[in-house]
Amino acid sequence: MAYSINPNLPKARAFAMELLIRERLPLLVVARKCGVHRSTLWRWKKKWDELNKNVQLTNANRPSRLAGSQFRIAACTWRIPTTTSRPLTSPGALSQWIVARILELRAQLKRCAEVIWHYLIYRDGIKVSLSSVRRILRRHHCFDGARKPRVRPDNPRRPHITKPGELVETDTIHHVDPDSGRRLYYYTVIDLYTRLAYAKMTTKLRPGLAAEAVLEAQMVFGFKFSLVQSDNGPEYGHYFEQQIQSHNIQTRHSRLHRPNDNAHIERFNRTIQTECIGHHWRKSVPLSRQKTNLKKYLDYYNQERVHLGIQLRTPAGMLQRS
Hints:
Layout: H1 9-22, H2 27-34, H3 38-51, H4 96-109, H5 113-122, H6 130-139, E1 168-176, E2 183-191, E3 197-202, H7 207-221, E4 227-230, H8 238-245, E5 250-253, H9 263-277, H10 287-303, H11 315-321
Parallel strand pairs: 1-4, 4-5
Antiparallel strand pairs: 1-2, 2-3
């Protein structure tokens, strides 16, 4: 299982296991309701079996009953804790004296990682890779202050989210046909408080279309946007800012080469590619059918699909809660 620190994961696993074991729903139904793959449920079931291996789920007096059918079901442990898969040490880690030598050369030469690596290889005879030298220097903050600023000086401060529309992220999916290289573009929008999502499919990459997607999302969601955050792509340039600001909405840009600033919309892009549109443009499917499938999926995503980040609620439920 991948390493995660999300505190809601044990609760999500317990919810899935109760549906699978106590309610005896089919595996595919549970996977769709919980928003995970069926193989993930299989791994959770194995961990649940291990946690409850000392609980006798069969009744010797009534052998015809299925295992786990309400017999001592209350004695079971449902919450499955997250076990870390992060290694404590690496077998290929550099020794402390090599690290000290790299930092010593940095202090003496005050040069870049390439020069220090050259000294280690040809002067000291120490076999070490250039990437290791760069990583050690970065880890000890030897490059701090040498980089250009990655934040625009006119960027508004990122707010602390307390209500719908306070911060909305937008991005673009480049859907490429692997044979011809032609592209289809999906302008995606997500509200960080409710996790309501919207997507607009077009065949052109233009700032006006990106602004239209944001304004259409505001109309579909039914509440006013205060701040829209995007990356630094060409479709989110000056004209995009003008169109958004003309509707009394502030604009904000993420830092250069920092996709984690737009983590919510990047995760939604991966989800919609995995569960709906795919990772490549299928020319055999007409655009009208693709738009219909996209609309159906957005309805399912906003109305039925539960999210770990909002306490196993749906986006529509979060909107009603606010």
